[in-house]
Amino acid sequence: MRLINFKFIKSAAKPNEFIYDELPQIAVVGRSNVGKSSLINMLANNKKMAKTSSTPGRTRLVNYFEIDKKLYLVDLPGYGFALASKEIKKKWDKVLDDYFNNTHNLKLVLMLIDSRHLPSELDIMMLNYLIELNIPYQIVLTKIDKLSKSQLNKNIEQISNYIRHNKNMFVATSADKKIGVDKLEEVISNAINN
């Protein structure tokens, strides 16, 4: 399934602002600076669809993008930004918790991990959280263009062992080089049609 018409719908900060209509939702989650906005822009084929920033931690709200009037792609607040105050971190945690516990038509979470590094403690916590809530997820490795092919293969092996997931289950992407679009579209299509 090609994802063609992307439209920003709204930002929400609390459950009474979330979207609860019948369209399926695919959420994008990951630590600050992992490349969530860039990934959304790559899928939309529009560099200005989601705001990207050189400053991590800009996404503080739940941002809804409607695609082809068939589904929502939902950009969730990034976690783990070191310079955020405890109060802001707590607020982000609450927004994520509220979203996951109140959205009943969530079909899949795209869990983004930077291919250059082992997953952080917060990544592991998020993964365990999704498993605990029985929410389907897909591991998406970002920024693969920053690594040589041999280094990427080595990192994929290490990440796979570290989180005890089969490396064949990962989707490797690069927003800059537009790598992984077809595979992500296939994953999204399968999620909303199952």
Describe the structure.
Helix content is 34%, strand content 21%. The protein is of the alpha/beta class and 194 residues long. The chain has a single domain, classed as Rossmann fold (3-Layer(aba) Sandwich). It has a seven-stranded mixed β-sheet, sandwiched between helices. It is globular. The model is unreliable at 54-58 (pLDDT under 50).
Number of strands: 7
In the sheet with the most strands, the strands line up as 1-3-4-2-5-6-7
Shape label: globular
CATH superfamily: P-loop containing nucleotide triphosphate hydrolases
Key terms:
single chain, globular, about 190 residues, alpha/beta, Rossmann fold, seven-stranded mixed beta sheet, about 35% helix
Outline the secondary-structure elements.
Layout: E1 6-12, E2 25-30, H1 36-44, E3 62-67, E4 71-75, H2 86-102, E5 106-114, H3 121-132, E6 137-142, H4 149-163, E7 171-172, H5 181-193
Parallel strand pairs: 2-4, 2-5, 5-6, 6-7
Antiparallel strand pairs: 1-3, 3-4
Short précis:
The protein has 194 residues and is an alpha/beta fold. It has helices spanning 36-44, 86-102, 121-132, 149-163, 181-193; strands at 6-12, 25-30, 62-67, 71-75, 106-114, 137-142, 171-172.
